[in-house]
Amino acid sequence: MRKIISFMHVSLDGFVAGLNGEMDWIKVDEEIFDYVGKRISEGDTALYGRMTYQMMENYWPTAGTEPNASKHDLEHSRWYNQVHKVVLSQTMKDAGSTNTTIISDNLADNIIKIKQQGDKDILLFGSPTATHSLIQLNLIDGYWLFVNPIVLGRGIPLFTGIKEQIKLKLLTTRPFTGGVTELNYTVDRP
Predict the structure, then answer these.
(1) Domain containing 56: what range?
(2) Which residues form the Bacterial bifunctional deaminase-reductase C-terminal domain (predicted)?
(3) Phi then psi dihedrals of residue 114, to 5 deg
(4) CATH number at residue 24
(5) What's this model's pTM, rounded to 2 decimal places?
(6) For the chain, is the Cβ count within 10 Å smaller at the N or the C terminus?
(7) pLDDT tens digits, 25-69
C-alpha cells in the first residue's frame, strides 16, 4: 500500500500558517525548489484541501507558459498538470479540471482506496484542515517538514486535536543555506 506523506512548511514553534492563514514568513529559494522538485517527482498523486487546491489551481496550470517563467515554474507546472489531484472538500462539487478527484464524504474509506491504487507516494501539500482530519484518522504515513527559522507565537498549528501519541522515526535531515531545515519522518507503527 502506498503512503501519504505530509509536505509542510512549519515555524520553529510548530505553526503552518498565521492566524489568518498568512504564509509570508515561509522562506523558499532555488536550492529548496530544486530539492523539492526532485522529491515530488517520486509521487504521482497530490492531495489538497479545498483552499490549497484552489490556490494551486489559480497559478500552476499556466505558470510554465509565462514568458518569464523560472526553472521552478516550468518544472512544477509540468508536474502539476500531469499528477492526479485529490481534493478533500465537503463544499466543492466540481473541480473544473481533468485528472482531479473530489472526496466529500467517507474520508477514511475513500483515502484507503486511493492508497491501495498504484505504488508511488501520495503527497499532501499544505492544507492544514485536511492534514488535521487525516492525522485524526491515522492515515498519514510520514511528515516532510521544512522548519523555517521563525517563531510565530500564534497561528494554525500543525498538530492539533491529537488523541494519542504519534511515534515518529527520523529518516533524514537537511539544512539549507537560507536557514530552513528539512526533517523527514516516517510514522513508526507497531
Answers:
(1) 4-187
(2) 2-180
(3) -65, -40
(4) 3.40.430.10
(5) 0.89
(6) C
(7) 999 999 999 999 888 887 889 999 998 898 888 888 888 899 998
